[in-house]
Amino acid sequence: MDRNEPKNGLSRSIIIKKRPPSPTIQYLLFFFLIFANLYFNVINPLSITFNNQIKQKNHMKEIKNAIVQVAMEAMDDKKAENIVALDIHELDGTICDYFVICHASSSIQVGAIADNVERELILKLKEKPLRVQGQQNGLWIAMDYGNVMVHIFLDEMREFYNMDELWADAEKITL
Fold it and tell me: What CATH number corresponds to the domain at position 116?
């Protein structure tokens, strides 16, 4: 037996020395790694963030629509008159996206409608008003839900302020 042969009788395998990749291959590999890093650490998270923002916008729109719907139904439950929602989000200089407007024939009914709107929005959507103004006199109660403003007028006050005509360019939504 030859000294260079292994003991198991197999011949020695040929060892091929690997050469380093050519400079062109090295550059391609380098740019591939940079692009992969850029994609997975910068581009992909941006697209995920953008998709989350779109989902969040759609979710906010659904919440606003739900607030409008529940408020209008709560007004109707207490026999409010001429219930209308104005979609004003596309108009310039608006402070919110929707006005929900109705009127009643007495200040007691105005207060009852406001109480019912607040109660129903808390029960069904867990939404509390940010601010409520006008409950003391019962002539006009304004309830601020962020992007939705609820206005409950005494009938004479609604005629006087005429908000429906003031925002005539807005899309009207009725029950």
Answer: 3.30.460.10
Q: Is residue 23 part of a domain?
A: no
The C-alpha angle 86, 89, 90, rounded to 5 degrees, equals 110
pTM of this prediction?
Answer: 0.68
CA neighbours within 13 Å on the CB side: how many for 27? 3
Opening angle at CA 110, ends 96 and 127, nearest 5: 45
Share of the chain residues as helix, strand and coil, in percent rounded to the nearest 5: 50, 20, 35
Count of Cβ atoms closer than 10 Å to residue 94 Cβ: 16
Q: Percent of the chain, pLDDT > 90?
A: 43
Q: What is the pLDDT of the chain when averaged over all its residues? A: 81
Contacts for 11 with CB less than 8 Å, ≥ 6 apart: 5
Given a cut of 60, is residue 132 above it in pLDDT? Answer: yes
Return the structure tokens found at 165. 């005509």
Structural domain range at position 142? 55-173
Q: Is residue 88 part of a domain?
A: yes
Q: Is residue 44 part of a domain?
A: no
Domain count, the chain: 1
Please check whether residue 87 is in contact with residue 97, taking contact to mean a CB–CB distance below 8 angstroms: yes
Residue 169 covered by a domain: yes
DSSP secondary structure of 83-121: EEEEE-TTSTT-SSSEEEEEEESSHHHHHHHHHHHHHHH
